[in-house]
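User: I'm curious whether this sequence folds into something compact or stays loose and floppy. Could you predict its structure so I can see for myself?
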Amino acid sequence: MSATDKTALTHPLTHSIAPDRAPLDFAGYQSVGGYTGLKKVLAGIAPTEVQAQVKEANLRGRGGAGFPTGVKWSFVPMGEDAPPLKYIVCNADEMEPGTFKDRLLMEAAPHQLVEGMIVSGYAIGASTGYIFLRGEYVLAARHLRAAIAEAREAGYIGNNIGGSGWDFDLHVHTGAGRYICGEETALLNSLEGRRANPRAKPPFPQVAGLWGRPTVVNNVETICNVPHIIAHGADWFRGLSQGKSEDGGTKLYGVSGKVKHPGVWELPIGSSGREILELAGGMKDGYQLKAWLPGGASTDFLLPEHLDVPMDYGSIGKAGSRLGTGLMTVLDDQASLLGTLVNLEIFFARESCGWCTPCRDGLPWTVKILQALESGEGEPGDIEMLESMTSDLWMGKTFCAHAPGAMEPLQSAIKFFRPEFEAGIRAAGRSDHGRGDSDVRAA
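Assistant: Here's the prediction. I'll summarize afterward.
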């Protein structure tokens, strides 16, 4: 086996990516094993068998929630009585602060996503696929549209693909750029031309999604794994994980912040935060690690002593956070914790769709309190108020997971760094700083 073949088996998502060249075209992608999974499917694998293989592989959603992909697909009606029109949608919005892994895949290996969309569409019996892409990813859109055109010319998109009797079309849709579109039903509303508000569930999209038809929404990295599972098997995929991780496959991990070499790397899922930080060259000279977010802005802070925890869904959950997107954001010892939280919460408040009161009004109020604490003008009771917000804006009390995600870094910061919040309480006898409802609205 050549070195190239070995790399394809250990780094399936990135083996065809090179920083010194343009993405592979159709012929180049095929030369390194591309479209092998699709060819196997078209040779006679039933859609339900594709679903079964993905389920057996223990592929969990790489967009943040970590829901088992094969299980998600199994909720789609199949068989003769199933609705004739279904959709497969790729969530390529990637608005999570500190996350840039999907951009790498789309810009540098667009045919991989195209193949994944076709195979995933076949698995659920979809006739149309959409890649919902954030509008700022201009280069990714250009590369994806070129790859789709090449796949269409080769007969892998269109009518009666490979003589299978199955028709499938694929489109790139660029969105207006809203964080809430990371929530799958808000994404579907936006794709339909509506305001990007989340929908009530049930019904779930697998039963009634895009234009009321059965729809599956999966993340870019998730879908890119699918053709490799079909090409090499579920056992191979499960064997890629590290240690005792129950999750299958590799994971795109990354680091941003005051490190020597920020970037993204494909590693066995279950690799530790310390391994990832070492790949980034460690902290820049003169800086020490204070805390880190394991998977984007909407995850709980962890401490340096958590660096040896395996970066998989279960282990990070037990440590008190979420794997999320798997891209670490490091907070150094010279950074202002309160300033960091203000920055994060301003983002979350701005990106609220405004649909429910706790999120619409609670997030700006959180910002106002944090700004007061940051400037040393906090009042006694402010910390307790923030703690109550982390409960009042939690799961089950808001329409979607946007506000709970905003509370994750806040609740963990209070838990680990309470003295820094206490230092922001103004001294007794100083004049009131005028916090009120009008100030909340201004935030």
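Summary: The domain at 250-332 is CATH 3.10.20.600 (Ubiquitin-like (UB roll)). Residues 122 and 167 are 9 Å apart (CA to CA).
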